[in-house]
């Protein structure tokens, strides 16, 4: 449920989108609004400028400015991207409170105000190469300031436990990140591997020093008219950390049937997803899915142990089905899931991108 308008201003393109789909259960909140300004040939050098502003309800906002510079020499094949971002959002995945037998999560009174600025180098595979690996390397400065529902800076949550690593009103960090991805796809199947490593560099004594590793593997293939998908994701973090850096388990992109982060919050995680999709009509498909995830017993190692205080089980399993319909508005999704506590949940949404 939404409306989108594109405006051409010279070489620049402006997309304005108003989306009401996520507000069906919260009719009193304002609809989401996004403004996307793109310029594909800045300064006549094929450089790209992208300015994206999202506003969703009373508590979510995100401003992202990205400047992409194309390689000017055959010796420098990597694309260079400078980015600046500021966002404010509730930290429901970590500090949220699970309700209704973990099927939903509500705010725990902690929001994160983030400011990031950095540089990314992206190396796509060459046209002459048979290799399907791509890599990204970035360095960024990140300033994280926890706030309460009234916008005031806080150092502790509602239970009196610290919400920053430094103990101050904010955390600062320099992060070096490398990411490698392998993709292979044809009409019958696809494969994807992804590896990410983040290293916190403590240039100052109170800056966070940590190493965070995350991986993902996905495989999909056709069996007659049906399509089978399976995936596994996991990761771990060592060194200093704030609670908001922990891995959260549970939610639509993790273990369905649970609220966001309602399964667990840990220094490590492992999540398995599997689906079987069958086309029902030309535009409608039905899917059954099975998800499971665990924090591998690492929840107690997160500062303040938010998982224990909110009674999160640490592992969970979700089973359900969904109907997905392609329309002019995007893909309409209706999901029904049940978790290990026999609690049922239903969600409805519209996405502009195909699932």
Explained architecture:
This protein is an all-beta fold. Helices cover 2% and strands 59% of the residues. It has two helices and 21 strands. The strands form three sheets. It has a 17-stranded antiparallel beta sheet, with no helix packed on it. The chain has a two-stranded antiparallel ribbon with strand order 7-8. The longest helix has 4 residues.
Q: What's the total number of strands? A: 21
Please state the overall shape, judged from the principal axes of the Cα atoms.
Answer: globular
In this structure, how is the largest beta sheet organized? 17 strands, antiparallel
SSE-based structural type: mainly beta
Strand proportion, as a percent range, falls in over 45%
Alpha-carbon distance between the two ends:
17 Å
Question: Which helices and strands occur, and which strands form pairs?
Answer:
Layout: E1 2-9, E2 12-19, E3 32-42, E4 47-56, E5 60-69, E6 79-90, H1 92-95, E7 97-99, E8 104-106, E9 111-123, E10 133-147, E11 171-185, E12 189-201, E13 210-223, E14 226-239, E15 247-249, E16 264-266, E17 268-279, E18 284-294, H2 306-309, E19 315-327, E20 330-339, E21 344-351
Antiparallel strand pairs: 1-2, 2-3, 3-4, 4-5, 5-6, 6-9, 7-8, 9-10, 10-11, 11-12, 12-13, 13-14, 14-17, 15-16, 17-18, 18-19, 19-20, 20-21
Short description:
The protein has two helices and 21 strands. It has 355 residues and is mostly beta strands. The model is unreliable at 18-30 (pLDDT under 50).
